[in-house]
Amino acid sequence: MKAAYIKQTGPPENIVVGDLPRPDPGPGEVLVRVKSVALNPIDLYIRSGLVAFPLAFPYVIGCDVAGTVEAVGAGSRKFKPGDRVWGSNQGLLGRQGVAAEYAAIAEGWLHHTPTLLPDDQAAAMAMVGLTAHIGLIECGRFREGETVYVPGGSGGVGSMVVQMVKAVGGRVATTAGSPEHLETCTNLGADLALNYKTDDVSARLREFAPEGFDVWYETQREPNLEVSIPLLRKRGRMVLMAGRTARPTLPLGAFYPRNCSIHGFAVFNFTPEEQEPAASDIVRWVEEGQLRSLVGRCFPLEAAAEAERFLEANTLHGAGALSGKVVISVD
Description:
- The chain contains nine helices and 16 strands.
- By secondary structure, it is α/β, with parallel strands linked by helices.
- The strands form three sheets. Strands 3, 5, 6, 7, 8, 15 and 16 form a seven-stranded mixed sheet that branches. It has a six-stranded parallel sheet with strand order 11-10-9-12-13-14, with helices on both faces. The protein has a three-stranded antiparallel sheet with strand order 2-1-4, with no helix packed on it.
């Protein structure tokens, strides 16, 4: 089978597209005929060696997958051949990735794809959808009627947070860096969309939420806690899910006297069973028309290295040319 893989960690040029043996599904696994793969920043960190997960070389890249079940292993009961599926958390913690024509995946990591959802959109919503839901609902304890801020509302996680807040029944403010991206945020349901390049974001957020934000869902790699903490309301919750090398200053005087809290998390620390409620809500909201994913750029499997370079330029180096997800088309 064709696959995009590395033989050692390093730059995108280490990615090879070539033939590897087709895997066989083991007990409790299914063999997926891969159609689409979505890339995430964690893919860049693993490939480069920045995150030292255990890797078995040749290591197939890619965490997020959508496709069709080709065969099932012994004891697999959740799916049957022909079922369309989507999932995430592959290529992590010793598991092989999914940027290949076929992938053997433990059935707990997979979910049924809504009938009318294309595979590229299913892959694009996987990790960002699960991350948004777990951070917002479980870690942030967001409830109907509350007010949320999330930067980057046209990005992967940000766009999911904006839509989930509206699906539950809250108010949400966000930011973006261009008129086109601001229009995307508004179309997704944002109650307030600010241009972080030209607007006085702090002042406008204070006007939007005079008593402060119930949840601040931080997606930026270099958060400014001296700005954000004072904008939380009493008992406000901040969610952190990015910024491995960040060393922000925490203004304690604006933090602990108001019973605020900070919750950091990584989605891959959650088991399949813990992720299932999030996946269930995601599927339901997609079917109800309340949630959609944004495919920003699509590459063929043969251009996997180019896809990672493009994502790296936009997520790590601020190129600003991406709205939505980078997807690799396998079929």
